[in-house]
């Protein structure tokens, strides 16, 4: 599953930030797809302490945080009983999540204030039949998910994480998340002596034949145990028995009870702070778990006290989607009507008496969506890749993304409103447009905006090394994003009512 995310908790034991800097890091579970260590002590370097169970930022970990914050878990298959002032959430496929807090002054037809993000990142996924043998090596066949910088996956200490379906003792089927902490896999590069031109001609691996991790060597028949394992390996199992044995050990189940697996290859190196001033975050999957975390945390913190929603007329919402990296066209992606189905159910549920014509449509027209996805910070060694006057920098605030050809959903109106939130709270913002001679990426903003006609702004935290196995962003930008999102929830209603466009 492309979105089985792993989090870390950054808890500096001594002050490592500037005096004006960030309270958020005292409670910040920072994303690294596959490692769940708690990093508790920072001085000039991070130290890794004890491990916690596997969690998913788009589902399990977000679910844990929301539940702890007092949000009530709903099921899409049950009737909903919602009330003003209530806080709720549900998941779909354990990789898509929608959470919302209803203002106590809400009336049917009022809008939704939404922050949407995606939880998936480029990775390698095991093929349905992953077991293969080359020379004396046991190999694991993989397929590429998304547009990764695949050369960064070579010569890394890799492991596996994902979901497993296990048969229960009563005959039921259980959904389990698993993460193997120790290095299991490696994709070795070819020695320079056998590829003398690689530094001049470039590293151009064939993604089918060269990007295949090795997991073991063939077992010698030196013992009865080796003979038994060797016999098992010679069978035509979809996955190496050694691999399924590791999964059964991790899940404390019998190997024959493993019915189905959906696994990612993952880096084992934990997230950390870096740079001489500990000003950078070095981590996998900053794109886009950083946005996902800031959105969930902002929703929880903006509605945590009894009076937080007392003057709110709107509904505050977070929507986390899967499969953005491959186009969002899935049951758990932004292309599905998940969020809007939830909105309609909320409107209908809160309409205890006839609400008049077009209550849901009126609510959509009063709604606003912040599409949060990481942004391209200017690279000091490739500055010419950015338009001269739109070069976002680290530590300088959220980047508002513009594109005349609607690759981003930002308009002059939505950009103005989002910047007014920042201006009111003295938060910096930056702006980005791609060069005219380069193609422009996209995100979930245009997909959602065009799906139902909701006002949308696309924004993100500036980062480097996007889609690498190891990415970089500024520590301060995470806190700025969190504060901007929290301010959006708390003040957007008052700003929006001052502007009329179509009346």
TrEMBL record:
Record keyword Protease present: yes
InterPro entries: Peptidase_M18 (IPR001948), Peptidase_M18_dom2 (IPR023358)
Keyword set, alphabetical order: Aminopeptidase, Hydrolase, Metal-binding, Metalloprotease, Protease, Zinc
Enzyme Commission number: 3.4.11.21
Domain of life of the organism encoding this protein: Eukaryota
CDD domains documented for this protein: M18_DAP
Cofactor(s), names only, from the UniProt record: Zn(2+)
Pfam families tied to this protein: Peptidase_M18
Reaction equations catalysed: Release of an N-terminal aspartate or glutamate from a peptide, with a preference for aspartate
Protease listed as a keyword: yes
GO cellular component: a single term: cytoplasm
GO annotation, biological process: proteolysis
Family note: Belongs to the peptidase M18 family.
Protein name: aspartyl aminopeptidase
Naturally occurring in which organism (per UniProt): Dillenia turbinata
């Amino acid at each position: 599953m492309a979105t089985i995310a792993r989090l870390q908790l950054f808890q500096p034991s001594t002050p490592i930030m500037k005096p004006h800097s960030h309270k958020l890091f005292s409670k910040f579970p920072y994303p690294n797809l596959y490692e769940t260590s708690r990093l508790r002590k920072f001085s000039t370097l991070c130290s890794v302490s004890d491990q916690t169970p596997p969690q998913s930022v788009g589902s399990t970990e977000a679910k844990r945080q929301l539940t702890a914050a007092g949000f009530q878990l709903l099921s899409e298959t049950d009737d909903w009983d919602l009330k003003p002032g209530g806080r709720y959430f549900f998941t779909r496929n354990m990789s898509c999540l929608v959470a919302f807090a209803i203002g106590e002054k809400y009336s049917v037809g009022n809008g939704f204030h939404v922050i949407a993000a995606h939880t998936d990142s480029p990775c390698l996924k095991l093929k349905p039949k992953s077991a293969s043998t080359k020379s004396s090596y046991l190999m694991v066949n993989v397929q590429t998910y998304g547009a990764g910088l695949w050369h960064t996956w070579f010569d890394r200490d890799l492991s596996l994480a994902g979901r497993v379906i296990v048969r229960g003792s009563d005959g039921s089927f259980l959904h389990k998340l698993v993460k193997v902490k120790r290095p299991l896999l490696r994709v070795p590069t070819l020695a320079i002596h056998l590829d003398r031109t690689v530094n001049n001609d470039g590293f151009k691996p064939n993604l089918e034949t060269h990007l295949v991790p090795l997991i073991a060597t063939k077992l010698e028949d030196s013992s009865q145990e080796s003979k038994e394992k060797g016999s098992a390996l010679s069978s035509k199992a979809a996955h190496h028995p050694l691999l399924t044995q590791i999964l059964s050990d991790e899940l404390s189940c019998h190997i024959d009870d493993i019915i189905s697996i959906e696994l990612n290859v993952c880096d084992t190196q934990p997230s950390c702070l870096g740079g001489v001033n500990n000003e950078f975050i070095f981590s996998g999957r900053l794109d886009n778990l950083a946005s996902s975390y800031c959105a969930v945390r902002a929703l929880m913190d903006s509605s945590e006290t009894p009076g937080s929603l007392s003057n709110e007329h709107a509904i505050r919402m977070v929507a986390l989607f899967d499969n953005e990296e491959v186009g969002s066209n899935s049951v758990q992606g932004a292309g599905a009507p998940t969020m809007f189905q939830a909105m309609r159910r909320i409107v209908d549920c809160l309409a205890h008496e006839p609400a008049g014509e077009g209550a849901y449509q009126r609510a959509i027209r009063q709604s606003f969506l912040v599409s949060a996805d990481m942004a391209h910070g200017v690279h000091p060694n490739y500055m010419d890749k950015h338009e001269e006057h739109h070069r976002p920098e680290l530590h300088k605030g959220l980047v508002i993304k513009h594109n005349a050809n609607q690759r981003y959903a930002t308009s002059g109106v939505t950009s103005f409103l989002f910047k007014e939130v920042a201006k009111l709270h003295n938060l910096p913002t930056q702006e980005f447009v791609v060069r005219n001679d380069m193609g422009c990426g996209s995100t979930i903003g245009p997909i959602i905006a065009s799906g139902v006609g909701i006002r949308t702004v696309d924004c993100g935290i500036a980062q480097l090394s996007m889609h690498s196995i190891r990415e970089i962003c500024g520590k301060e930008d995470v806190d700025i994003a969190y504060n901007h999102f929290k301010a959006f929830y708390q003040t957007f209603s008052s700003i929006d009512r001052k502007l009329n466009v179509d009346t």
